[in-house]
Amino acid sequence: MERTQVLAIASAVLLHIFVLDLVRRRRLREEYSWLWLVASVIYLLVAAWPPFSRWMGALIGTSNAASAFTFLAFLFIILILIQYSVRLSKLTNQVKDLTQHLAIVDSEQQELSTAREQASGSGLARPAELGTDGHKEN
Amino acid sequence: MQAEQKYVTEERSPTLASDGRVLVVIPAYNEATNIASVVRNVHLQLPDVDILVVDDGSIDDTAALARAAGAHVVSMPFNMGYGAACQTGFKYACRHDYAYLVQMDGDGQHEPGSVPDLLDAVRDPQVDIVLGSRWLGRGDYKGPWLRKFGKFFFAFLARLCTRHEVTDPTTGFQAMNRKVMEFYCTEVYPVDYPDADMIITLDRAGFHVKEVPVIMYLNRSGQSMHAGLLRPIYYGMKMMMSITMTMMRDDRRLTLKHPPGNGSLRPMPPIALQAAVPTNREAP
Prior knowledge:
The complex is a heterodimer of chains A (138) and B (284).
Chain A: H1 3-24, H2 30-48, H3 50-60, H4 65-121
Helix pairs in contact in A: 1-2, 2-3, 3-4
Chain B: H1 9-16, E1 22-28, H2 35-45, E2 50-55, H3 62-68, E3 72-75, H4 82-95, E4 100-103, H5 115-122, E5 129-133, H6 145-162, E6 174-177, H7 178-184, H8 196-204, E7 209-213, H9 230-248
Parallel strand pairs in B: 1-2, 1-4, 2-3, 5-7
Antiparallel strand pairs in B: 4-6, 5-6
C-alpha cells in the first residue's frame, strides 16, 4: 500500500470518528452530522477501494480518477456552503423576529410597571388584575 | 395566547381599528441631539397621536430623551438596521391596533409640519400608502450629485415597473393604513434598507400608492446611510438585484393571506394595554 493511500484511509477514519465524537459531546446536532458521516464514508471508499474512484471517473467521463474526485468534492462543498447560507438567512430572520418581539414586550412590561409605580406612589389602590410582580401568569 | 388569523385584514380592521388611532413611528439610532425636538414638534402638530421611538441599539441617551419628551419607546437590544427598526414599529402598531401609521426619521430631516398632509392623504379609503416626496412641488432638498443621480435612476426604474409617477422612492417619510402595516410585518419587508423595490412590491401586491409633497432638510448632523465610495456602489447593485427579483416573483404569493414564510415568527397577538398604560403625555 502506498503511503498516500494509508494517509487517506487514516484521515477518512479520523474524520468519521471526529464527527461521531462531536455528536457524542453534543457539539454537533444529529441532523447536521449525517452529511459529514456520509462524506467521510465516500472519502474512505475513494481511498481504500480503487475501483470506486475509477467508477467515479467513468461517471464524469475522465480516466483521471484524481480529477474526478476533486471535481465531485468541490461540487459537494459548494452545495453544502449554499445550504448553509440558506439556513443562515432563515436563522437571521428568526433572530430578527425574536429580537423585535422581545423589544416590544419589554417596552410594554416597562410601561406597565411604571404605571403601577405611579398608581401606588399617588396612594391609589393597585389594580387587582395585575399580578404582584407584574408578570402575566401563563 | 392563541394563534389567530392575523392576516385576514378584511375581517379585522373595520371593527377593531375604526376609531382611526394614529401612531407616528420614529426609528432612531444615536439621535440624542435631535430626537427630543422631533418628538415635541410632532406633538405640537398633532396633539392626539401617539409617538413611538424605536431606539435601534443606540449607545447615547436617545431612549431616555425620547421617553422624557413624551414618546413610547421600544429599545432594540442591539443595532439591527433601519429596516428592522421600522418593522419593529409596524409590529408594535399592529399589536396595539392602530389604524394608521406615519413613519419619519428622527434626525430632523423630515419636517413634522408635513405629517398632517400625509395623514389626510392616507385617510382616503382609495389610498393604502402615502409617500412623502421632496421633489413634488415644494421643499428645498439639495443633495450630493451621486445621490441625486441614484434617486433619479431608481425613481425612473420604479416608474417603469409600476407605470406610476414615483418621484422619490427612497423616502423614509410615509403614512400607511392597517393593511400595509400588516403587509410590512411579513418577510417581504427588507431588514436593511427598504427602497424602490418595496414600492414595486407594494404595487404588484395591489396596494394603492400615492405621493404627497413634503418638506425635507439636509441632514444637519450625523452621517448618511449611503456615505463613502463603496457603499453607494454596493447599494446600487443590491437595488438592481432586488428590483429584478421583485419583478420575477409571482405576485400572487404576495397577498396577505399567503405571506411568504422564511422561518418567520407567527405575528404577535394584539394586546389591550390602553387601559393599563397611560400615555406619558403629561411631560412637557
